[in-house]
Design goal:
Length: 339
């Protein structure tokens, strides 16, 4: 990944393709995101399956190994149980621990009306319909600099760490207090981390009948960047609306882990009729979050509104529900110009 394509590279690629066997290309030394982007220039060799890796830092090796072993015969080894890590986040006293208890059927987390009662992260595992759900209960997140006690300062750090470790995040809001500024800040942590997200509006049993449509509209207006996230109205205290979360978590996890072939993506682009610039081809670079690289005829980055449009069209076509989508652009031949 640190050197340009040589004549020997082209000869070897052509020889391998003539064999009629599946061919995958591992572009080594892609030890940073910038290097990973450079690796996409190797598509000119005509090999569809390209994997930026760093053997030294063990980066990208899992995706490569999954690809080369996908058609291997299954032996007698027991089937591995899918495991989905879920972080429960929200500001203090919105009902995170109560929700964890409702999901797991336990009282392991200390539940109290006093904000900040839950101090340390607590994990609980639930096995349901052949899937393992690992729930991480985090202490309430507060803005750095405004948290006085050292234990709660540590909880802020741990909460953000758990977001990075999770596959899916449950953002818990308090229906009786509406959406406040800190809710948006906390939601931004999960969004920026590229995590699948479900918005859980808790304490809905304390609200008057009706009103869901207006509440969700207000929520969408306040959290515009979470347009892809599902909204669930529930009561962790009495259990209303909690059970459907398991199915939804699995759906969001599967959506964030979905891979689309380069062939499918390029057929999608042909039907897109995008006029801002010519999209030469598109490929999916990674999952969680689903990340797509567009090779275009312009070196200028896409405007945010155009990135959002393409992401929404990809979501509409392929069903990436509940997960953010990252769209990157590269001009064809940009790597050669840099050299």
């Amino acid at each position: 990944g640190r050197a340009e394509i040589t004549g020997a590279d082209r000869d070897l690629a052509q020889m391998l393709q003539r064999l009629g066997k599946p061919v995958a290309l591992a572009v080594n030394k892609a030890d940073t995101d910038a290097r990973e982007d450079v690796a996409h220039g190797f598509y000119e060799l005509g090999i569809a399956d390209i994997f930026p890796v760093s053997a030294e830092h063990n980066r990208g090796m899992d995706d490569l190994l999954d690809h080369v072993t996908r058609d291997f015969a299954v032996g007698e080894a027991p089937e591995e149980i899918p495991s989905i890590k879920v972080a429960i986040i929200g500001r203090p006293n919105v009902g995170k621990s109560t929700l964890l208890n409702a999901l797991t059927g336990s009282e392991r987390s200390i539940v109290s009306p006093i904000a900040g009662t839950t101090r340390d992260s607590v994990d609980e595992t639930v096995l349901l319909n052949g899937v393992e759900y690992v729930f991480i209960d985090t202490a309430g997140i507060r803005r750095k600099g405004k948290t006085r006690e050292m234990a709660e300062k540590l909880s802020v750090v741990m909460a953000r760490r758990n977001i990075r470790m999770a596959h899916v995040v449950l953002l818990v809001l308090d229906a009786t207090e509406g959406i406040v500024g800190l809710d948006a800040t906390i939601a931004g942590y999960a969004h920026e981390g590229g995590r699948g997200l479900i918005i859980c509006v808790n304490k809905w049993d304390l609200m008057p009948e009706g009103g869901k449509r207006k509440f969700e509209q207000d929520l969408r207006d306040e959290l515009k960047f979470l347009e892809y996230a599902h909204v669930v109205f529930l009561s962790a205290q009495i259990g209303t609306g909690v059970k459907p979360l398991f199915k939804m978590i699995r759906q969001v996890y599967e959506a964030s882990s979905l891979r689309v072939t380069t062939g499918e993506l390029n057929r999608f682009v042909e039907a897109l009729h995008y006029e801002e610039r010519k999209i030469l081809y598109i490929t999916q670079a990674s999952i969680r979050p689903p990340t797509f690289v567009l090779f275009t005829n312009k070196a200028v980055p896409l405007h945010f509104s155009n990135q959002r449009y393409i992401a929404n069209q990809i979501r509409k076509q392929f069903g990436f529900e509940g997960t953010p989508i990252v769209v990157k652009t590269r001009a064809r031949g940009a790597d050669k110009q840099k050299r």
